[in-house]
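User: Reviewer 2 asked us to show a designed sequence for the structure in our supplementary figure. I'm pasting the structure tokens here. Could you produce the per-position amino acids so we can include them in the response letter?
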């Protein structure tokens, strides 16, 4: 798990690649008792923000104090302009964003209930046209980073069978570390897992996603299945309110969750964990300490509407 140092030619900490969406977040919405047909139900807030691996992990990392570049697709429409503007205003280098004239920008309606749990209604839009070639064709930008964070396996099905080819090429051409995140409905496909996991340095899916990929119910069995598929780096499972379990170099530890007084919105909490974990690794923490930092960043993200609203500078987590 080699993370190259910053240098004049490698001036970005992380390249975030993959899914970019616009999120319309309404809260609180009771989907079990919706308004009558044609009716209207007042809600407390409706917020438009960005979502997906690229904006969530990217903006979180910038707010933590790191330099980030983005590789993704947006549509040639007003919400695509919103994504570009928000990323650029956050300080993310957007030279790797492709403007797609064929489809709308990917978008999600997020219904958040009073507990903070969320339900998603998603239009894939131009992400249907996203391919691993979008990353390979931006190699001049990709090689400027120390870590490639790609998301998501399970929501970009056109890329799934080609991730091994992508990660192998990135390793050969740049030597950078690779994190792969998962979301949605990753399928159980042992051959596909075996094609990319040997090239991945950090792989920490959620419990539900790990269960779908391995068919196992116990986190320890899930980790063994990932190892059997060729994973050699840091492997783990995000366990929601139970924290996470992380395995590296033959050692496995369960990392406790960081508690908050009130959960406002769980949107992007998994991405916040990834950003915090990567921040820890870039700050030379060991993987277990990096996972504790990931839990702390994820916890803070729960306290406000939107994935990145409550994420603070890195030093506030290191000294708390």
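Assistant: Here is a per-position design you can include in the supplement:
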């Amino acid at each position: 798990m080699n993370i190259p140092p910053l240098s004049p030619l490698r001036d970005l900490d992380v390249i975030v690649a993959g899914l970019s969406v616009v999120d319309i977040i309404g809260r609180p919405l009771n989907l079990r008792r919706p308004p009558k047909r044609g009716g209207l139900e007042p809600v407390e807030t409706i917020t438009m923000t960005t979502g997906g691996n690229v904006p969530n992990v990217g903006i979180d990392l910038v707010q933590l104090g790191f330099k980030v570049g983005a590789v993704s697709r947006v549509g040639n429409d007003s919400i695509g302009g919103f994504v570009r503007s928000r990323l650029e205003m956050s300080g993310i280098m957007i030279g790797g964003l492709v403007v797609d004239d064929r489809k709308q920008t990917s978008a999600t309606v997020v219904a958040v209930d009073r507990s903070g749990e969320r339900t998603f209604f998603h239009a894939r839009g131009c992400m249907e046209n996203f391919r691993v070639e979008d990353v390979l064709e931006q190699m001049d930008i990709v090689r400027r980073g120390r870590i490639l964070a790609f998301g998501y396996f399970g929501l970009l099905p056109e890329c799934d069978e080609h991730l091994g080819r992508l990660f192998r090429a990135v390793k050969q051409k740049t030597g950078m570390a690779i994190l792969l995140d998962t979301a949605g409905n990753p399928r159980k496909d042992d051959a596909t897992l075996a094609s990319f996991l040997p090239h991945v340095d950090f792989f920490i899916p959620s419990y539900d996603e790990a269960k779908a990929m391995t068919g196992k119910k116990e986190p320890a069995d899930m980790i063994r299945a990932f190892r059997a598929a060729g994973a050699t780096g840091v492997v783990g499972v995000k366990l929601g309110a139970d924290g996470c379990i992380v395995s590296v170099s033959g050692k496995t530890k369960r990392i406790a969750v960081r508690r908050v007084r009130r959960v406002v919105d769980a949107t992007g909490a998994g991405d916040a964990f990834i950003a915090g974990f990567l921040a820890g690794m870039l700050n030379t923490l060991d993987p277990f300490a990096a996972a504790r930092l990931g839990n702390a960043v994820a916890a803070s993200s729960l306290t406000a509407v939107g994935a990145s609203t409550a994420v603070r500078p890195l030093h506030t987590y290191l000294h708390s």
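For the response letter, you might also mention the following. The first strand starts at residue 12 and ends at 18. DSSP finds twelve helices and 13 strands in the chain.
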